[in-house]
Amino acid sequence: MSIRLGVCYYPEHWPEEIWRSDAQRMAALGIKQVRIGEFAWSRIEPSPGQYQWDWLDRAIQVLADAGLEVVMCTPTATPPKWLIDQHADILPVDANGRARGFGSRRHYDFSSPSYFKESQRIVTLLAQRYGRHPAITAWQVDNEYGCHHTVVSYSAAAQQGFRRWLQQRYHTIDALNQAWGTVFWSAEYRSFDEIDAPVGTVTEAHPSHRLDYRRFASDEVARYNRMQVDILRAHAPGRVMVHNFMQMFTEFDHYPVAADLDVASWDSYPLGALEELWFAPEIKARWLRTGHPDFASFNHDLYRGMSAQPFWVMEQQPGPVNWAQWNPNPLPGMVRLWSWEAFAHGAGCVSYFRWRQVPFAQEQMHAGLNTPDNRLDIGGHEAQRVAGEIQQVEQAAGALQQPHGKVALLFDYAAKWLFEIHPQGADFHYPQVAFEYYSALRSLGLDVDIVPLSAKLDGYAMIVVPPLPVLPADLAARLKASGAQVLLGPRSGSKTASLQIPANLPPGLLQEILPIRVWRVESMRPNVTEPVESGGLQGKAYHWRDLIEADDGVQVVAAFGDGHPAILQHERSHYLASVFDADFTCDYFERAALAAGLAPERLPETLRISHRGGLTFAFNYGSQSCVVPHGEHAEFIVGASPLAAQGVAIYRSRH
Amino acid sequence: MSIRLGVCYYPEHWPEEIWRSDAQRMAALGIKQVRIGEFAWSRIEPSPGQYQWDWLDRAIQVLADAGLEVVMCTPTATPPKWLIDQHADILPVDANGRARGFGSRRHYDFSSPSYFKESQRIVTLLAQRYGRHPAITAWQVDNEYGCHHTVVSYSAAAQQGFRRWLQQRYHTIDALNQAWGTVFWSAEYRSFDEIDAPVGTVTEAHPSHRLDYRRFASDEVARYNRMQVDILRAHAPGRVMVHNFMQMFTEFDHYPVAADLDVASWDSYPLGALEELWFAPEIKARWLRTGHPDFASFNHDLYRGMSAQPFWVMEQQPGPVNWAQWNPNPLPGMVRLWSWEAFAHGAGCVSYFRWRQVPFAQEQMHAGLNTPDNRLDIGGHEAQRVAGEIQQVEQAAGALQQPHGKVALLFDYAAKWLFEIHPQGADFHYPQVAFEYYSALRSLGLDVDIVPLSAKLDGYAMIVVPPLPVLPADLAARLKASGAQVLLGPRSGSKTASLQIPANLPPGLLQEILPIRVWRVESMRPNVTEPVESGGLQGKAYHWRDLIEADDGVQVVAAFGDGHPAILQHERSHYLASVFDADFTCDYFERAALAAGLAPERLPETLRISHRGGLTFAFNYGSQSCVVPHGEHAEFIVGASPLAAQGVAIYRSRH
Amino acid sequence: MSIRLGVCYYPEHWPEEIWRSDAQRMAALGIKQVRIGEFAWSRIEPSPGQYQWDWLDRAIQVLADAGLEVVMCTPTATPPKWLIDQHADILPVDANGRARGFGSRRHYDFSSPSYFKESQRIVTLLAQRYGRHPAITAWQVDNEYGCHHTVVSYSAAAQQGFRRWLQQRYHTIDALNQAWGTVFWSAEYRSFDEIDAPVGTVTEAHPSHRLDYRRFASDEVARYNRMQVDILRAHAPGRVMVHNFMQMFTEFDHYPVAADLDVASWDSYPLGALEELWFAPEIKARWLRTGHPDFASFNHDLYRGMSAQPFWVMEQQPGPVNWAQWNPNPLPGMVRLWSWEAFAHGAGCVSYFRWRQVPFAQEQMHAGLNTPDNRLDIGGHEAQRVAGEIQQVEQAAGALQQPHGKVALLFDYAAKWLFEIHPQGADFHYPQVAFEYYSALRSLGLDVDIVPLSAKLDGYAMIVVPPLPVLPADLAARLKASGAQVLLGPRSGSKTASLQIPANLPPGLLQEILPIRVWRVESMRPNVTEPVESGGLQGKAYHWRDLIEADDGVQVVAAFGDGHPAILQHERSHYLASVFDADFTCDYFERAALAAGLAPERLPETLRISHRGGLTFAFNYGSQSCVVPHGEHAEFIVGASPLAAQGVAIYRSRH
């Protein structure tokens, strides 16, 4: 399985006279594939029904002439102004009932019938024209679904769609009333037509209603994506279908969307993400110019689990971005480090965004591989170095097999929605807890597969389940059958599929493997923690406590300061009744990993280790050089130990 | 006057087959009365004009069979969906002009003529059917007026109502122009029809306009409540009329609403209130699982002053709630402590919310006396213990007389509105200052009556007046005639009834008892304090300073660091020119109490003492046991000294 | 050039029987001019077409009788209710599409054709009636343009106006598409009629689109103002035309508005401004009751640069105001200090707001020279003292010439808009950086002229340019020709006029004097700083870094900790690549001032020095007395050295 570099390119942004030189310089740099065409609708169809294909024909040809493969995109993320003026119902509607207007991007409603039809039209035309073009080896469908919170819309079309969706799910209105529990607060409905979107209510809307609306909205993304994929497959046989997902855009479930594609790709912006996501200010300062050591790899491991073919990084940050609140400059070496880290975690391609910084419009401050005055920038030089190193590595080690961890972490998008809708504690943030579990595993040097609830669990030695409120009926049995050490986060099994408390109390369906009952919960404000202790190990518990009673035979392996159980174990299943500090979590996971027969090893804070294809990859996020635990007789293909700041080492251990 | 326990119950939430067992278990626990029916409209009238009374008939009968009294509620807090679809004008309108939609509760506008009429209809039907039912001894009107900020609406109906209200108040538009001072900024009106709601203006709307709008909105609540009470009294002779007010929902004046009822009740959620109200984060952490020692009692003392009959706690927190940002678990013993504290302050009934935690909908995480799987929860066990102790106490002491303090604290809802509309200092919060004064008194062991401005003041030794901008014309004379030590907060007398500065400067009408003039004021940002000193007592002043000049004969009893008077005294009247820190306030109040002939005694921080019916009640909010100042030969009926953490002691002092 | 005091007066707020006494007392106090009439529309025209001039005739006469000059205002800041009811399109529209309603002030849209016409009507009537009145020597046009964020409106009329404005600017839609770069994200337009206001988009609208909308909105203010001025000049020959600008209302460009007037005046509220503007909480507490020592003078120096005639302070804070979040009391002496400071910086008139505190409406807590019960307040006494001192000074020194600094600071309103629209770092605040540069110069005892980009630069020894993204084509040449030391802030020259990156990279047009290239930038979050060093001088850099490469011959005179240049110098031009801490900035400016042949002198923190007409003025903002660096043999006209807290000294140095 070979690995390669790509780049994102917008020929329409530049004078045609430099296209050829661009293409040749790309090829010379070691770039193999070029993504084009997303956002180009107004150039393809400048006026209704008037098409201009010639420039695009020529652009593709120029790239092909340079030996580059092309990833063609559908341009549906940016319908042009004239189309919006024709069909105002294309616009999504916000929670205040206002249309979200033209003038940026993603100004369309997934439920709009007009837009569905117009998208079919433009995608069909594009696919008919270019589907069999020999240089075009892949198609990207749309761009970054969910960006700018565009999954959930409150349009009339969405409301109609929601009613149909409910009818399909519940069949009768009585079944819905029963499932939701609408008798509460006299919210009973007489027909599906009485049901509005759960928005603009006096106080919080019914949580089951809200959860179903989020499920519906997520399904609409998958429906829309499938429409495009079906058209493309019909006209572009054998081409790879791909979408570029975006880090932590959790408003829709990525798994079903990915299931309709060949390759899941994601857009990796380690510095922008650090600034914009949940991290505390001191963490943001700590990793200012490198990103958090576990953030990109979390996403690599997540998207690796989405498609049979190796995932891609469709957009790789090449320098400062423009869209975070603050946009620092990556340290020299980080573009190379991020690139290799992606490959270490299984990427098939790392594609930089973008070839050249564009001097106009919203993203003019977003760096590229080249400066606006067309000189190779730092990121460009580092990409060139990576291209050379790929050759070295493939010469030394051949094509790299996909990595597989011995540890699985179960990730569930719907858990995010549920805790958002029904928090019970204001700062309980599902992705953060999932990330903290992942980070603890990674700081133990363990390779992790992030997988969906439906994943095959056989072969894992350890399975970590971040707070999982709703379980598939067979999950407990599958966890048990895996033979793995299973660690379950708090609030797991706490809800039924229609967001009710299970009749047998939480953890509901998990009682099959953990005969305990959560008879009470409490959430704790940020300035409150509870001490926790486990066999001499001291820590602090945050956010949440499940108060638990257990059947005989369940062991209390950690306890809170007031005596309530903090972690309970039954056979190979462990239930964590709270969220613990990083050290305590790491220590407990280390014990579990040892029990699972793994060989965890505490890494220095700035060092991360991954394994792929018989090779070990080491990455130093720190500002000091750092010793790599490579064992004796290791054969270094790239780098060395001690590993310099921002350094990458790739080696084969000899035992 | 006997005291008793009650519970809130929703038969419509549960299978009919468990109703009887529920009723029997309630009775066995010591519960005497059961509140039902609020929120049941969609079950009573599932479709327009189609009534289903049978289930409700049976539910009442089941409760009656178990010897329980029933508090029947009108279901008007939750009009069903079909009614909203019939009359869209029922919905309240927010400050942005958007209707606040169906899907939670309180989705009605007090000014909607449609809703007024529909409410008349459903209440009449209910009253006709059940008004004379022997088991129904009380009627609750609606539920928690004002919850979710539903008092003020900006609907067309409200606007029309406001114009009528203004016409009644001012008679001529000239009188209104004069009273408000509309010549300022060319805001003069030519007719009442030109006057809009004071919302959506470019900058702040006219404060007199805003204050009148708030008064109007408050009057609308009273008007609506009176409509229901009138219907109920006509059909349910001799039954107790009650509404369950909610802690610190100050958007309407509770006194006139209570005046139309027989019993004022309130819903006591000490932990939810602590988390959601003005308290600083460290205070919220300090009393996380007990609530603030003075908060529930502040409300008890407030609602005791609203009706001739003893107030009730209609809903008593039985465990964690679901609606605060964070929802901790009450410490064991707190449900009992809160229950006894209510009785100590004069409650006739403490009714727990709710019998059993419901596993669905918005409040599924709200604890009950029973867990969702129907086992008696901690709160249930504590309620049972209280039921037994009630018998002990009544055997030992007979029926308890209502408590009366020697100290009155004057509370005024309109003061809250006025300071909100016209703050002059962003963090000046009327209920907070009133509470701090109350807390200082309570930490001196003093029993306090919280009373309205119209209260009879004779017999009080000390009267504390939190910042009171607008005075009734006769208040100064009544304060003087009381013979009490009178302590007046800053900004008292600072405005006329139409929100102007009094012609003789503040404190306006209070100059009758305090011949001083506030010639200037200043507000201070939170990171600024001023030193204050009074006879060796040092403190800090916050928020606000009235700068004052005084006639001869007025004593300056405390001064700021820059020499301005901080407290002035004339005869028995004291004017506090600022808000002081807790210690200074407490010390000064102690001096005043001594001057008033009272016997203040500084209590430990966690201990509170109350007196009722010849008994002393002591409550320990702390985590350490604590000595109760019971004097010699006290006869303990419940508990002992030292008093355990979360302990209750009830004793008769023998002198 | 004589200097004098004025006052703002609202005869319509007071009973006519006290007008005469008011006028006489004003005159006795030393007041020379009285501003009246703004906000009086509803009294002039109480109903459509029904005029009441008599009261205004009499009010003017009463003032004239007392020997007072009158500044008459047009009343257009507050159209009356009946006018709004006639023409709903007068109301401005907010970013959510809601009309901003009647009920406060400035409820009009600069683009409304109805309001333009109605304004013409009322201004013409007023001008016809009073234009030649001998007592009326000046006309104020409207009041505080831009107050309450009223420059930018999203009405249909504004949208139409914007399209016309674009057509005039770009002529063809292709030119606009090219200038903005609309090919990005398929935002290409086919005609000007397709262009909406840049609001309500899914994510950020196109920055060039936004910048042009801001320019358009600013131009609309100038257009509206010019309409009124033209009418007034036609009917009021020889009268002074003035508008009262407001401190840091930067939403429109003040220079073109001022260019149509005779006198630029501003409204000086040092305490309100400190509380409401960008200052950190500890700075707000530090200067709580004095204001920041450089804030009023910054504005004096700014408005001095706007008109040939001496600027006025049209409204001078006379005590606490009502409109800041917190409103402290100025220390005794501050009203006098602020008044003299205005004169020291070139004011022709200082006019207090207001004669008497009004007891009603929105501003009832705003102090005046008199208390609401009509006694002379502190501010009144201090004004009286200033009136006397003016006589002393003018006797001793004659009429004072306008001050001129040797240092120019270039100020540009459009820079504020650009950085707001296109921040790249969330807390980069143009006025703050400009103010910090100014403050550094002032703490060196230097007199500063704040001037527009178009100013004549000859004669300055030092020119300081806060971050200036867009330059006029000739600025670099003019800077060079001035012969001054030129200090340029970061991000200068970073954009073209249509908000693109210059083809030759930043600093674009400045490369003529500074042959450097900013090849990359980074913004830094508030908890990150970078060390900086310059010849032994250590400091910290904040917010931003321009990473720069330089041609040979450019000197690196300061460097960041990681080696990147922090300040570069070429000949007399210095480029500051970041924002530095106050000490470092001050030290570097001191070096540059010395190189420029000036005599900077570090002043104590609380002392400020200004020069006018051969006199030196010293102001002590501190609470301790402080030595004034007056040299030997200075002749004190007012005050002395050491200078008392809040003291003013005026002296002639004898060398």
TrEMBL record, chains A, B, C:
<dbReference type="Pfam" id="PF08532">
    <property type="entry name" value="Glyco_hydro_42M"/>
</dbReference>
<dbReference type="InterPro" id="IPR017853">
    <property type="entry name" value="GH"/>
</dbReference>
<keyword id="KW-0326">Glycosidase</keyword>
<feature type="domain" description="Glycoside hydrolase family 42 N-terminal">
    <location>
        <begin position="8"/>
        <end position="392"/>
    </location>
</feature>
<protein>
    <recommendedName>
        <fullName>Beta-galactosidase</fullName>
        <ecNumber>3.2.1.23</ecNumber>
    </recommendedName>
</protein>
<keyword id="KW-0862">Zinc</keyword>
<dbReference type="InterPro" id="IPR013738">
    <property type="entry name" value="Beta_galactosidase_Trimer"/>
</dbReference>
<dbReference type="InterPro" id="IPR029062">
    <property type="entry name" value="Class_I_gatase-like"/>
</dbReference>
<keyword id="KW-0378">Hydrolase</keyword>
<dbReference type="Pfam" id="PF02449">
    <property type="entry name" value="Glyco_hydro_42"/>
</dbReference>
<feature type="domain" description="Beta-galactosidase trimerisation">
    <location>
        <begin position="406"/>
        <end position="598"/>
    </location>
</feature>
<dbReference type="InterPro" id="IPR013780">
    <property type="entry name" value="Glyco_hydro_b"/>
</dbReference>
<dbReference type="InterPro" id="IPR013529">
    <property type="entry name" value="Glyco_hydro_42_N"/>
</dbReference>
<dbReference type="InterPro" id="IPR003476">
    <property type="entry name" value="Glyco_hydro_42"/>
</dbReference>
<keyword id="KW-0479">Metal-binding</keyword>
<comment type="similarity">
    <text>Belongs to the glycosyl hydrolase 42 family.</text>
</comment>
